[in-house]
Amino acid sequence: MPLINVRDSSMLEMKSRLAQKSMAISTRYPVMIIGGAEDKTNGCEILRAFFESAGGSSANIGIIPSASREPTIVGDRYYQIFTGMGAAQVQILDIRFRTECEEPRWQDVLKGCTGVFITGGDQLRLRDLLCDTPIVDSIKTRLQSSELVIAGTSAGAAIMGEDMIAGGSSGESPNQALVDLTNGLGFVPELLVDQHFHNRNRMARLLSAIAAHPNRLGVGIDEDTCIALGGDGTFQVLGKGTITIVDPGSLTHTNHPVTGEDSPLSLHNLRVHVLKKGDCYDYKKRAVLQYHS
Amino acid sequence: MPLINVRDSSMLEMKSRLAQKSMAISTRYPVMIIGGAEDKTNGCEILRAFFESAGGSSANIGIIPSASREPTIVGDRYYQIFTGMGAAQVQILDIRFRTECEEPRWQDVLKGCTGVFITGGDQLRLRDLLCDTPIVDSIKTRLQSSELVIAGTSAGAAIMGEDMIAGGSSGESPNQALVDLTNGLGFVPELLVDQHFHNRNRMARLLSAIAAHPNRLGVGIDEDTCIALGGDGTFQVLGKGTITIVDPGSLTHTNHPVTGEDSPLSLHNLRVHVLKKGDCYDYKKRAVLQYHS
């Protein structure tokens, strides 16, 4: 009965693929983008998911605290957390000057890492220190070949895209002057990330950013919430808040750029999703995949 | 040449319709919904448009200051403005108790009015005083038969829909507890209005309100900005800020209502528009009509 054999084997193959996919979804996320203020004392859902993605008890985690003005304190905080979870090794890449990025010692540390965690602070500082350096190149190469996973929180989340929100304000109609834009480190080029999102009322600023970059996908990430990328163009939501997707894929009009910097912006036909824990989204196809209520 | 005559006459008819439409758009708005803090000292663009809609120098304007705890001061402010513009008559309907709504004196005032202006204050106070009273019935009837126009600002804007945002907060992920909902006065039943919109960072609250009422159209109106309804299911934007439309017409999922009141809400596939002065929108067909950049 060759036909049945073929079907059996293809079903087994399918089951095995599903098992792999489900394992990939539930335990290993190549990239995690965290909205800041993630739980560090209770269940640590998000940090634990990163720890597991990096290999759990075999994890070799490198912490980059360079966005912070207190890199020693911040670095140590995460060192204690990942050590406490049982990581095999945790190292702090306390890079303070751009010239350091050329030094072989950091490359040596990175070579051993299965996971890199980028802390909060000032995203402009991160960009100035790390953009177009061998450190970032090395992380990108090792990310591509699945040799490590990365996560970034707050400023460490902001730098994930090719374009980056450097700062801005709230409490105004969307306008160009509401947001400062620059380049990010480009780990996930197509995303334009904003963090502490609804907590700091950043919808007008993300809308203003998307008006300037309608080729990107706007992703507003609340505190203690993250998008966990599966490496196949999809992500799922972890944590206690929401993810707000601003998709300008069907935009029919924007008046950006306007002459007066604080003139109100218009944006016609955006698609917006509010996602919560368990929701999955395909950012290549720009579609919500499933949900758990 | 009958054919040419027919074409000529139909072209003339079309021209005349366009002229009428353009006149209707530019000078008479049956309903104006203003996001609060409209300019009262400079060009007074929005208030002047209301004054013109009500008949200009022949206007007989009734001011309802009842949302305010200082109805005398607020009423007098608008009295001075519309008198200063040259209205034929301005009267203040200083209704302080619900029982007053039965009194013939207010009906007599309303009968003469060509325009009614509802001021800011507390929208719950307006609802408690006016909902299901002969005052509101009378305004609706006269609005329907084009005998008067109405405008409301801030609290006076909030009460326009059948459903109303009574209050709420910001700085949180969208959730049920973020917004207090009740019934409005229902002058434009299908709209769910929020005001002082980006100025007070109300996107999360409007999203939360729309999750509860996905049969409505969410309209966030910034300060010194208004939607001026044409009476044909369309409106245009006046003023200096933006209008944010949250259209759940293609919503594929929401988890509302959730068990935990402060659990995050999800909303999949909203259509969102940011409109500015000159933009037109058809809220029956739910489509942006045109724009002026």
Describe this structure in words.
2 copies of one chain form a homodimer. Chain A has 293 residues and is of the alpha/beta class. Chain A has one domain (27-290): Rossmann fold (3-Layer(aba) Sandwich), CATH 3.40.50.880. Chain A is built from 8 helices and 16 strands. The first copy, chain A, has helices spanning 2-27, 45-53, 71-85, 104-112, 123-130, 134-144, 155-158, 203-212; strands spanning 31-34, 60-64, 89-92, 115-118, 149-153, 163-168, 179-183, 191-195, 217-221, 225-229, 234-239, 242-247, 253-254, 267-276, 280-282, 287-290. In chain A, the strands form 3 sheets. Chain A has a 9-stranded mixed sheet, with helices on both faces. In chain A, a hairpin with a 4-residue loop joins strand 10 (225-229) and strand 11. In chain A, 51% of the residues are buried. The interface between A and B is large, with 41 and 41 residues.
Name its key features:
disordered N terminus; alpha/beta; five-stranded mixed sheet; globular; 31% helix; Rossmann fold; homodimer
TL;DR?
The structure is a homodimer of 293-residue chains. The first copy, chain A, has 293 residues and is α/β, with parallel strands linked by helices. Chain A is 31% helix and 27% strand.
Radius of gyration of chain A: 20 Å
The CATH H-level superfamily of chain A is Class I glutamine amidotransferase (GATase) domain
The chain pair with the largest interface is: A-B, 41 and 41 residues
- Based on secondary structure, the structural category of chain A is alpha/beta
* Overall number of domains of chain A: 1
Number of helical stretches of at least 4 residues of chain A: 8
Reading off the top of the CATH hierarchy, the class of chain A is best stated as Alpha Beta
Morphology of chain A: globular
| End-to-end Cα distance of chain A | 44 Å
Mean pLDDT of chain A: 91
